[in-house]
Amino acid sequence: MLTSEHLPSIHRGFSGADITEICQRACKYAIRENIEKDIERERRRSENPEAMEEDVEDEVSEIKAAHFEESMKYARRSVSDADIRLLKLAGAGAGATGSDPFAASAGGADEDDLYS
């Protein structure tokens, strides 16, 4: 089972979009595995229908660590270490004022708030 303790080793250097791609690929591997099992089950059923009368209800598939491991084989980072350093430097310079440049919107933000 993949837990939150595994995440630091998985996501180091990857952007949010990169991690999303890794998760989506792992999900697709799990789906592919499930489809292959279904095809095999149907093949066995067609070869010997009497033996399959006590067919067990289909189990719920899970995305397992093996699916993530396979996904990580093809994972690629979209942001280089050099870009990360530049972004950190730019963030440190902008953060000197102690304010987030994206935190405040242009005038009337409270009145235009979508959820108010």
TrEMBL record:
Segments forming domain AAA ATPase AAA+ lid: 13-40
Compositionally biased tracts (Acidic residues): 50-59
Superkingdom of the organism of origin: Eukaryota
InterPro entries on file: AAA_lid_3 (IPR041569)
Pfam family, one: AAA_lid_3
Ranges for region Disordered: 39-59, 93-116
Biased segments, Basic and acidic residues type: 39-48
UniProt protein name: AAA-FAMILY ATPASE
Species whose genome carries this gene: Salix viminalis
